[in-house]
Amino acid sequence: MTGVLKTCLLGALALSFLLSGAEAQCDNIVITNTWPGNYQAEFTATAPADINGLTLELEFSSPPDAVDFYSGQATKVDDTHYTLTSNNINVNAGEEIKFDFQVHYSALSPLVIHEVLNGVEICDSAFTTPTPMQNPCAETGMSPYDYAQVLCMSYVFYEAQRSGKLPADQRVTWRFDSALDDGSDVGHDLTGGYYDAGDHVKFGFPMAYTATVLAWGLIDFEEGHQSADQVEYGKAAVKWATDYFLKAHTAKDELYGQVGAGGPDHAFWGRPEDMTMERPSYKIDDSHPGSDLAGETAAALAAASIVFKSSDSAYSEEMLSVAKELYDFADAHRDIYTNAITDATAYYNSWSGYGDELAWAALWLARATGDDTYLTRARGHWDEFDYTGSEVVQFSWDDKRAAVFGLFYMLDGGDEYKNAFVSFLDWVKNDAPYTPEGLVFLDAWGANRHAANVAYLALYAAKLGLDAEENREWAKGQIGQLLGDNPKYQSFVVGYGVNPPEKPHHRSSSCPNPPSDCSGGFTNPGPNPHVLYGALVGGPAQDGSYVDDRQDYQHNEVACDYNAAFSGALAAMVELS
């Protein structure tokens, strides 16, 4: 990033207009405010000569719709050139000139790249090609695969998925502030959280699952996180979600579970910083409940409260309090959340119902509080929803039953929970379908994600002493499949290993640096301009075939939930190495 841009970054309140960090904007322009389709800027310069009436010729990087000059008049010369004039600005040579102006736009945010002040050129900036972002995760020398490096990269991927105002320690340099008006349609601050996948909707249901499972990995494979020096990055990934959930819980029995509409969002192929479509906010409440959404969010906050208990007790207690409220809401007012948030039906319908989320939330509250009342309530859910386990075929954002078996056994020790957990893993290892290369194939959509999920459960079972050696070896083989231990020597993690994917179905990383727009980003035959380090792509078909094709979202999209259990499994592999 150039020093000029760093100056602008430090002075800006919100930089949703900056798209890639590539722009060499005139360094006497500081953005002081931004909102969709507009930014306000402050111009500061030293007068090169006596000024008795100002004329400032501006060239923009892309066409503005209009320019407002508060101290005078703005005249359009052509699409990218405007002249600001004022008879009210009179200063002596060497004195400071300062004023504000506003830029309106509907496509790329226009930046000032050339200035002529009363006939004197004071800025002649040029577009520069930035140095591509380098992998911030160093190799560690671990073999046969560098699990520690991939774990680090997995958390880098979550930084690429961040929505809202980005922090100063953001490692993904081609992402900037975005969606800063989320929630304005309902009068709540709903900024933050994660963009779901290759799109820019914030789907609360899979986001909550992601946070729960990331927290789980930090809790039960803490040693691996410590060895890889990833504890703080893992906590930051969880907190980016939980901060958002706390905002989204706007009343006792009210939770916002989605921002953005699937159709308009998916019709837009571009950077999140460039979005201009409406982003409606959707909620559940006591009149339109959603037990699965409220229950999973409760589980996420309860699990996260354990993660932060020793380092930030006040934050931990806040999350635990909200988790209790959300679980009670989920249990008292029962329904499938997509009956309230109908837009999510086509994307994240709760096929397994809400019984698994009720038990899941109760178990995490039992673990977080040590209160056996929650364990008793979890047993009630087990009996009510007939958790025989015979029909369970995966662990995912939708179906938590296999994980419920494991967590129940950890907390209770009962044989019925142990048997259900062991039975599920035995089916996965011995009777589930596989690709010819050896990847367990539990779903045609995101096969890699499902393999990582059950590998994590096998590693967790091993940690509990259940068929420890067999489960570890099987899980090691599945993680190896994802990292390149297959006849094709194909890594499925962007930026890692041999022949990794270069064209993930992911909007923001597919967009070139400004001044180019993203109109050709979807069909670009070459690699994505930005390497989406650490993202696990969907993976092969059942016959093992896989093509690195951005347009094939079934096999090449990425998503927050894809990397959740994968991260925990990598930490477990670090512990075993």
UniProtKB/TrEMBL annotation:
Q: Where is the active site?
A: 548, 557
Renumbered to this chain, region (Disordered) spans 501-524
Q: Does the keyword Hydrolase apply?
A: yes
Record keyword Iron present: no
Sorted alphabetically, the keyword list is:
Carbohydrate metabolism, Cellulose degradation, Glycosidase, Hydrolase, Polysaccharide degradation, Signal
Q: What is its EC number?
A: 3.2.1.4
Belongs to which family?
A: Belongs to the glycosyl hydrolase 9 (cellulase E) family.
Could you identify this protein by its name?
Endoglucanase
Please name the source species.
Answer: Cherax quadricarinatus
